[in-house]
Specification:
This protein is α/β, with parallel strands linked by helices and 537 residues long. Helices cover 42% and strands 17% of the residues. Helix 14 runs antiparallel to helix 15, helix 16 runs antiparallel to helix 17 and helix 18 packs antiparallel against helix 19. The radius of gyration is 27 Å and the shape is globular.
Length: 537
């Protein structure tokens, strides 16, 4: 009797709790109409207060996408609507303008950290329960080829450029609700199967979901601990990862080469030392020791307060023994973003630094400093940028800062603690190379040395050392600028030379056609336009 009473009481309490939870859940859910109200609130707020964001997308195109989502909402599940809102905000293609990743991924992510190395996407870290997959190359997700998955997920990410997606976009591939909303998985589930390759064997592995808070990750790299394992050999630590989770910045003297190496991973002050004090300590060391080279590494620096940059720039300009060709090297990468893009712009504008690494994840000129906009019904926060940062002339703006010399790490190099980027900075012979080919071409053009320009361009464009530079895009940009300025003969020469360098480029042939047209060569322009159209098919 006593036992039966207790069981009845427990069962009744259980049912009561479930009923209460169901009612509470029903109260918290919002209707399709309320979601539509939120979408229109976001649209109206954007038009009223952030219309300047219509820079990479036309207002009419954005409004059309808003209307599409508005009409779809009654037939979508809640998570699909949230992902849809993220797509709408991401259309502006400014990294600071976004619906935060956590707003979508907070409840469930796969317990893996993916990283896009030079040779593919690998599981850089994983929960120890799934340790057999660490270091595996990702071939498919839910049976879909990884390249197709990337293209499907990319619209959800507020990509500034390709590097932004590499740095900050891969985590979106580990969120089941995003994979479902974007058509990678046909049915929403708590598990997702990945096709992996490791040690020559291809196999499928099904991962369960965990809460986002249980991830062990910083700077897009795994923090190894009692629950998480990294693919990197943790017996030693390369300089760019040294003290990474303890200090925002540090420097180390390498006496054999009389080099000071600096790793700065934030533009915020650290509790233990302000940036101003750090810079003072750094320059005091340089002034009182035998230093012939300074390597400044910001490849993991995602930004902070750009007003903290000034003492560094002033300090470099005040030291000509360091601020000269071959003595100052600056390492950038896919994490270089926001206030660190401002720093990179200042380094490029005012110093003699040779820039090495990967392109940055930020446009040179960009919108930042976002305003929080809370949607009235769902309470989702969207962040819309309001500040235009322009360190470069408008006509010089580019999608990213491209290094003078590119170097990207492979998975095996990362796993074995090798650093080919730092090795390049340490060993490059700057006296035997052209540091800035486009500037070199410009100087030859201004001096009227056209024969030398054509000869050097043919050699440099095909040199593997410069393969990272988008020469085709750069020559087209120069040609367009010359046409805009009315320098038709110059534009004609640049485009004619470019057709020889890039004979299969429809973009170059179209530019050549425009130059011919501007020069009055109607028949030549007609033929060039036809060639461009043929190549574009």
């Amino acid at each position: 009797m006593h036992t039966k009473f207790i069981l009845t009481l427990v069962l009744g309490t259980y049912i009561l709790c479930n009923v209460f939870t169901a009612k509470l859940y029903a109260q918290e859910r919002i209707t399709p109409k309320q979601w539509q109200e939120d979408l229109h609130f976001l649209q109206q707020t954007t038009h009223d207060n952030h219309a300047f964001l219509f820079k990479k997308i036309k207002q009419t195109e954005w409004d059309n996408e808003v209307e599409k989502l508005y009409q779809q909402i009654p037939n979508l599940q809640e998570h699909e609507i949230k992902v849809g809102l993220s797509r709408i905000v991401s259309l502006f293609q400014y990294g600071h303008t976004q619906i935060p990743f956590s707003a979508i991924a907070n409840d469930a992510v796969l317990p893996v950290n993916l990283y896009h190395f030079k040779d593919g996407i690998y599981i850089e870290g994983v929960e120890k329960t799934h340790q057999k997959t660490v270091g595996a190359k990702v071939l498919k997700i839910a049976g879909m080829e990884i390249e197709k998955v990337l293209s499907k997920v990319r619209p959800v990410v507020p990509v500034e450029n390709d590097q932004y997606f590499k740095a900050y976009g891969l985590r979106f591939l580990t969120v089941p609700v995003i994979l479902h909303a974007q058509g990678v998985i046909s049915k929403l589930a708590d598990t997702v199967t990945l096709t992996l390759e490791k040690e020559g064997k291809v196999f499928d592995y099904t991962f369960p979901s965990i809460p986002l808070k249980d991830m062990s990750r910083d700077y897009n790299l795994t923090i190894a601990n009692e629950k998480w394992v990294s693919a990197r050999n943790n017996d030693k630590t390369p300089l760019y990862l040294k003290y990474l989770n303890e200090r925002f910045y540090y420097f180390e003297y390498l006496p054999d080469t009389k080099t000071v190496y600096v790793r700065q991973s934030s533009v915020f002050n650290h509790d233990s030392e302000t940036l101003k004090d750090f810079y003072k300590r750094l320059f005091t060391f340089i002034d009182t020791n035998e230093v012939e080279k300074l390597i400044y590494d910001v490849r993991l620096n995602g930004g902070g307060n750009n007003f903290n940059n000034r003492p560094l720039i002033k300090g470099l300009l005040a030291r000509p023994k360091i601020n000269k060709k071959g003595s100052l090297f600056y390492i950038i990468g896919r994490n270089t973003f926001s206030a660190c893009q401002n720093l990179t712009n200042e380094i490029e504008n005012y110093t003699e630094a040779i820039i090495i690494g990967e392109p940055t994840s930020e446009n040179k000129n960009f919108y930042g400093d976002a305003t929080k906009v809370t949607l009235p019904n769902s309470k989702i926060n969207a962040y819309l940028s309001f500040a235009w940062w322009q360190d470069m002339a408008q006509w010089e703006n580019q999608d990213a800062t491209t290094p003078h010399f590119s170097k990207e790490i492979t998975f095996d190099q990362y796993r074995n603690n090798e650093d080919p980027v730092l090795d390049l900075a340490m060993n490059i012979d700057v006296d035997k190379i052209i540091i800035n080919p486009m500037d070199h071409f410009t100087q030859l053009f201004i001096a009227g040395k056209m024969e030398q320009l054509a000869k050097d361009a043919a050699r440099i464009v095909r040199d593997p050392l410069y393969q990272h530079i988008p020469f085709e895009k750069e020559f087209d940009r120069v040609g367009k600028l010359l046409l805009k300025q009315g320098q038709n003969d110059g534009a004609l020469y640049v485009y004619k030379m470019s057709t020889e360098l890039f004979p299969n480029s429809s973009v170059i042939w179209k530019g050549f056609a425009e130059a011919l047209k501007a020069a009055g060569n109607v028949d030549g322009a007609k033929n060039a336009f036809a060639k461009a159209e043929l190549l574009s098919k």
